[in-house]
Amino acid sequence: MSDAHAVAVRVLRVALLAAVGAAFVGVVLDPVLRAWRPGSENAVGALLSGAAIVTVIATPFLVLVLLVAIERGRRLGWYAAGTLLVTLAGVLLAR
Amino acid sequence: MSVIVVGELLGVGAVAGALGALLGVGGGIILVPALVFIAGLPIHNAVGTSLVCVVATSVAGSAVQFSRRQIDVSSCVQLQFFAVVGAVAVGLVATRVPGAFVFFAFGALLLVAAWRNWPRSVPRPAPASSGGHAWVASAGSLAAGGVSSLLGVGGGIVFTPLLHLVVGLDFHKAAATSIYLIGVTAGSGVLVYFARGDVSPQVAAPAMLGVLIGATVASAASHRIDASWLKRGLAVLLLYMAIRMVLRGVHGE
């Protein structure tokens, strides 16, 4: 397996485990806490669920950067930079 | 949110994730109707939430496909750029599109997906011998990105045949590459939806968890599963959902 593929596999697996763990605790905590203390705010559950979502969304972009950095293709680098810039521009314009 | 609704979202997510991983698409074509009809989300919120789950499917499926060296990095990085341009451009204006139009467009997409998933004895068309026609691939990726942002799907329904027939990848490699492609595409779209406040984290988290579990299990077992019977059932389900989406478009949200 090439270095790029190996690194991608590691990053994706770690992100997957972290996101599943955080989402599981966040999702399970919410109804349990509401049953135990109706009307209470589940800040920890919301934080974990949010962290899981952020991890999942950020991971493909992180993998893209790592793939291009390892493969060291100049043309690929321009495409990747363009992808990130367009995404950033979209977020800024949407706010 | 009640335990029953959380359970429903987990189950729907698991089925969508498994189907997406097995068939090389993001599962959004299952998720969006489910989020509308089960969770009761408005269509634009359902689209944004589904995009989160599409990215989750991509992460889970890509981990397996990268380990099998099935992903063509060069094609991916190049086509991702065009897909993201389409996704962001449409994502910025998506909420201005009337909900009825989105329902009709989604119904049409489901009909196409149902037709494509019905197993046939007709041999698969041969891919382009030279793998050229770069402009066709770029334009197709742009369109796939736009469809992804508008309808909350990954775009794999466009990417997989594009990679196979135009870029010239072997079909399994095309499906595997598509799994990673949809991650960045949907990711860029969902970031636009998030920035606008159109994503519901309370709904996205349990659906995403279900998708992660379903996609991971299905990806690991994909080489042992004969997908033809699965495709028949999915085609029938897609046809049913297409009818419901069109009717919802006619009667309003």
Overview of the molecule:
- The complex is a heterodimer of chains A (95) and B (253).
- Chain A starts with a helix and ends with a helix.
- Helix content of chain A is 88%, strand content 0%.
- The radius of gyration of chain A is 18 Å and the shape is elongated.
- Chain A is an all-alpha fold.
- With 253 residues, chain B is mostly helical.
- Helices cover 77% and strands 0% of the residues of chain B.
- In chain B, helix 3 (43-67) packs across helix 6, helix 3 crosses helix 8 and helix 4 (73-93) packs parallel to helix 8 (171-195).
- The longest helix of chain B has 25 residues, at 43-67.
- Chains A and B meet through helix 1, helix 2 and helix 3 of A and helix 1, helix 3, helix 4, helix 8 and helix 9 of B.
Short description:
The complex is a heterodimer of chains A (95) and B (253). Chain A has 95 residues and is an all-alpha fold.
Order of helices and strands of chain A: HHH
**What is the approximate shape of chain A?**
elongated
Q: Largest sheet of chain A, if any? A: none
Head-to-tail CA distance between termini of chain B? 21 Å
- Number of separate helices of chain A: 3
Oligomer: heterodimer
The ordered H/E elements of chain B are: HHHHHHHHHH
Radius of gyration of chain A: 18 Å
**Beta-strand percent range of chain A:** under 5%
Layout of helices and strands, plus pairs?
The complex is a heterodimer of chains A (95) and B (253).
Chain A: H1 3-36, H2 43-71, H3 74-94
Helix pairs in contact in A: 1-2, 2-3
Chain B: H1 3-23, H2 28-37, H3 43-67, H4 73-93, H5 99-117, H6 134-151, H7 156-166, H8 171-195, H9 201-221, H10 228-251
Helix pairs in contact in B: 1-2, 1-3, 1-9, 2-3, 3-6, 3-8, 3-9, 4-6, 4-8, 5-10, 6-7, 7-8
